[in-house]
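# step 3/5: fold
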Amino acid sequence: EVQLVESGGGLVQAGGSLRLSCAASGLTFDDYVIGWFRQAPGKEREGVSYINRRGSDARYVDSVRGRFTISSDNAKNTVDLQMNSLTPEDTAAYYCAVIRGNLGTMNYLMYDYWGQGTQVTVSS
């Protein structure tokens, strides 16, 4: 059974940093991509970043590029999202998800398994 558990959310002032972690288990696929998504109240869920299993392909949505960094640790089965220079517009529930195969996408509808999410709130 695939399980994804997010941690690291919280309340931070604008300009601050947070590090989210996604702990994955039950990933028996030959290949997969793990993505981070976020959803603010009243808005559609959007892709933030994703990384392939090998860590050789990492992508970001334009609004976070240069501020967020995704990384993977295959020994620990974790994918972290380091978020710097946070703004109130980054406030959302953040989710990690996994898609089977080696092609990532920012389209949340394509992902197979999801975590429960962790809340990030950035105050101005």
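# step 4/5: annotate
The longest strand covers residues 92-100.
# step 5/5: archive (pending)
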